[in-house]
Description:
Elements: E1 3-11, H1 15-26, E2 31-35, H2 43-46, H3 49-68, H4 82-104, E3 109-111, E4 114-118, E5 121-124, E6 127-136, E7 140-142, E8 155-156, E9 170-174, H5 178-190, E10 193-197, H6 209-221, E11 225-227, E12 231-238, E13 241-248, E14 251-257, E15 259-262, E16 266-268, E17 282-283, E18 287-288, E19 302-304, H7 315-329, E20 345-347, E21 352-357, H8 360-365, E22 370-376, H9 381-385, E23 392-398, E24 404-411, H10 414-426, H11 431-435, H12 446-456
Parallel strand pairs: 1-2, 1-6, 2-3, 6-19, 8-15, 9-10, 9-15, 10-11
Antiparallel strand pairs: 4-5, 5-6, 7-16, 12-13, 13-14, 17-18, 20-21, 21-24, 22-23, 23-24
Helix pairs in contact: 1-7, 3-4, 3-5
Amino acid sequence: MVEERHELCVIGAGTAGFAAAEAARAAGRDVLLVTGTDELGGTCILRGCMPAKAVLEAAQLEGEVAKANEAGVETGAVQVDLPAIVRRKRALVDYFADDRVHELEGYPLVRGDARFVAADTIVAGERRIVAERFVIATGAVEIPPPIEGLDRIVTITSGGVLEMTETPRSIGIIGGGPIGCAFAQFFARLGSRVTLFQDAPELLRADDPDVGTAVRAVLERDGVEVLLDADVRRAQRDGESSVLFAETGRGAHGARCDVVLLATNRRPRVGGLDLAAGEIDGDTTRGIVVDPELRSVSNPRVFAAGDVLARRSLVHSAAYGGRLAASNAFAEHPQAAQWERWESHAVYTQPQVAIAGLTERAWRARGIGVRVAHLPASDVGKALVSGHADGFVKMLARADDGRVVGVALVTDDAVDLAGEAFALIDRGATAREIAEMPHLHPTMSELLARVAEKLAELTPGRAL
């Protein structure tokens, strides 16, 4: 086995790994990419963000057509062609994946599972690679929840659901996070009987309760049976169906399903790396344990980024982490990760959810006082005339200086409206400044100005 040496070896070629390689090459470093033998492209392109949004777009459009009659447009019965949805999704995935593969081919690329054999050395396939620095960006894997009998029924994950070409008569979804909520609505609108199990007091547990409550109301209106505080303890096969048994706050509950979707958490992919041989602290629960500069706490040659850090799975956050890890790997004065700027996220239900900055609960947990203002979406004319009156906007400002530090949007087009909120938070705008900024009328963006007016009455801040 021939030994080779490089300045930087990036393990993993998904979003974080590719961003790290780009940053290192831009800085003039000798960089080598090492990735497994699976299809190139990364989770986002192949099985995550892009294909999921392509499929979920159908439910969004079905919802728009359903509103057409209210606007005086007769459409007739809506027919959803699931095989056509999947064909379109596959074509888009191929397009995005081909583009990423073309970019990856511009780097020295080793195909093989990496395994540490020393603190500065890995083996991948037939190659032994010594590097001054490593960035681990191996992502995460889906882990089934510990439910008795789950291995004896047929289940699908968020990747498998994207390949379904037949609409199930009934589907049970375990997990009320972003994936579970989005696909619960999707299948309900396709005509399936949907039961959504959430083992927490509200949906979207990582967000403020008012966000989950608003989403639950919409799902229930679409016909989804939502079970909260539901601990699914047993699963069994019954003919062609599966039966899920759960304990809920209201007692025992059973649901018969043709299909069971596991929309639960993922775990960092570190199992085959032999972290002990590389003197790297970490495991499948904690991921790679790093300091604020993304350097391994036990091996200063190693940095990590992306889902392998056991953080919320966010593509923009993974790309930021990859760039920062590669920069810090050779920096004389490394920079600490500013995760607060990158915690923003979205849920692709209808209405959509977008969170800019940190949540109200997160700020209060830090002991930082915030003032809060709410405004229903129906308070702006555009929401009413376009039939998008569901939801609300919530804005948070620091109690001491009035700077806006968080915005929660539960509205149609929330993910696009959030762009303005990101920029305003990032630039340190106060509620009063936002209230005095011009916003076109009639637009949904007026929600930000209107809620800022309410918040400005409660907080100090600069005037324009």
